[in-house]
Amino acid sequence: MNTSKREFLGKTLTAGAGLAVAAFLGSTRAFAAAEDVQKAIEEFAGGKTPGEGVITLNTPEIAENGNSVPVSVSVESPMTEDDYVESVMILAEGNPSAQVATFHFTPASGEAVASTRMRLAKTQNVLAVAKMSNGDVFSATNNIKVTIGGCGG
Amino acid sequence: MNRKLLTVLLGATGLCSMISWVAFADPSEGPLFIDGEIEMITRAPSAEGHPLPEVISGWHYRTQSTQALEADSFENPGMLAVEVGESLWNTVEGTEGKSCASCHDDAAESMSAVGASYPKWDAASGKPINVEQRINMCRVDNMGAEAYPFDKGGQKPLTAYIKHQALGKPVSLDLQQGEMQQWWERGKEMYYKRTGQLDLSCATCHENNNGKYIRADHLSQGNVNGFPTYRLKQSALVSLHNRFRGCIRDTRAEFPAAFSDELMALEVYTTWRSQGLSVETPAVRQ
Amino acid sequence: MAAKPRVKVPKSAAAGDIITLKTLISHKMESGQRKDGDGNVIPRDIINKFTCTFNGQPVFSCDLDPAVSANPYFEFKAKINEAGTFTFTWVDDAGDVIETTQDIALK
Lengths: 153, 286, 107
Hints:
- The structure holds three protein chains of three kinds.
- By secondary structure, chain A is an alpha+beta fold.
- Chain A has one domain (20-146): Immunoglobulin-like (Sandwich), CATH 2.60.40.
- Chain A is built from two helices and eight strands; from the N terminus they run ααββββββββ.
- In chain A, strands 2-8-7-4-5 form a five-stranded mixed β-sheet, covered by helices on one side.
- Chain B is built from eleven helices and twelve strands.
- By secondary structure, chain B is of the alpha+beta class.
- The two termini of chain B are 37 Å apart.
- In chain B, strand 4 and strand 5 (54-56) form a beta hairpin.
- Chain B has a three-stranded antiparallel β-sheet, with no helix packed on it. In chain B, strands 11-10-12 form a three-stranded mixed β-sheet. A two-stranded antiparallel sheet of chain B has the order 2-3.
- Helix content of chain C is 0%, strand content 50%.
- Chain C has strands at 6-8, 12-13, 18-24, 47-54, 57-64, 73-79, 84-92, 97-106.
- In chain C, the strands form two sheets. Chain C has a five-stranded mixed β-sheet with strand order 2-8-7-4-5, with no helix packed on it.
- Chain C starts with 5 loop residues before the first strand and ends with a strand.
- Chains in contact: A-B, A-C, B-C.
- Chain A binds chain C through residues 23-27, 29, 67-69, 72, 79, 92, 95-97, 99-111, 113-120, and chain C through 18-19, 31, 33-35, 41, 54, 57-70, 72-79.
């Protein structure tokens, strides 16, 4: 590639592309390594391997801006004093740091359902891991495509 | 391919080359109801002489989750600023001991049509003025307070609060006032004039290519009925003149000052193009 | 002028009802990963904890990391057995606490 083309592309990317998540990134940090994600799950799950099902993770297939991506979780549970969902941890594999948020429920929650909005640095997998009061752990994973717009701010 | 030729081609077509001529998506279906109650006119027959057959709100060009954010006035983060605007409306400032409410009482009544009818002709200055400038005139002349600098102080939240009072009302513009017609002509000229290193006009994207994608951005008609708009990219309210400047900057051109004659002419012209659509302030966009 | 936090709680509910609560607060959620024009890192400044209690008892809480969007929004549930008061609390990195309350009646 010759210099002028590289320069042109560089300028175009800067001026025109406006990475959707530039405000969030703007850093030289690497993305969360797979082992960081694994470590976070192990700590949260107390060493247990998460099972399938029980937890539902809702996210859009495509996010037109990585600055605000809706995420909601719902866990099947009677939510009684003896049997309830304690926590749900949200992780984003492709972010500079994988942790997004951890919800904590109680029997007074009635249902283990919660929503928030998150920042995603790029197209990636998002995980939700639920920990029950008896120590059981369940997880779900969704892929979200984060688009890079043509128009800067 | 010859590298030099490739470079020249890339340079010449610029941002245009990013417009995908293949990918095309229809604007998504409405209707848009705010809180399931207030129906927004998001598609309207265009004014006489308008180059497009139908004016379509930018809301239709957004993804479902962005659309949902605007449809719920609790979840719409722009409403946080509208609430700030409400408290500013009732705050006494300046040497005269007045707030906006001192003269205009309940904004729900006194401002119910304002957001749908600006810019208006100002005979004293011999120019069109927008809501931001009208607020500043009130602050200086009637309140004895300082004018808000562009996008600073209470300008965005107070403008959003005032325009929000007209939520749902169709935008209309009176070109019969003063010299508004001349300013419309001037704005039209700006709209179609190619500018910047990328050689783009407003019309290149918003008239000729709306509905297509520029990289991953779904191009809208560029209507102005939702400003100030909550933009996810900035996670904050964005004023119309800020967006004008951002758009022009993206063509890699020098951009005019906010509220300059150039951008006021463009506001007059683009408001004319947006006529018939409901005021959506604060709209939510990407 | 800072915006007040917004909370949405039904005015009343029947005993045993599970209701939906929504909250929205104005905060830039500075991630600590951005740099300013001079290349200096802008220090992290986020809300790191949100708590909701009902008549003093915990209902729902959240630990927030910098990946939560600016102007944090939450939606969650609560089971109502009696009339009372919800207390919503947000704590930021500086230790500042914002609190608001909302009453609910029994139908």
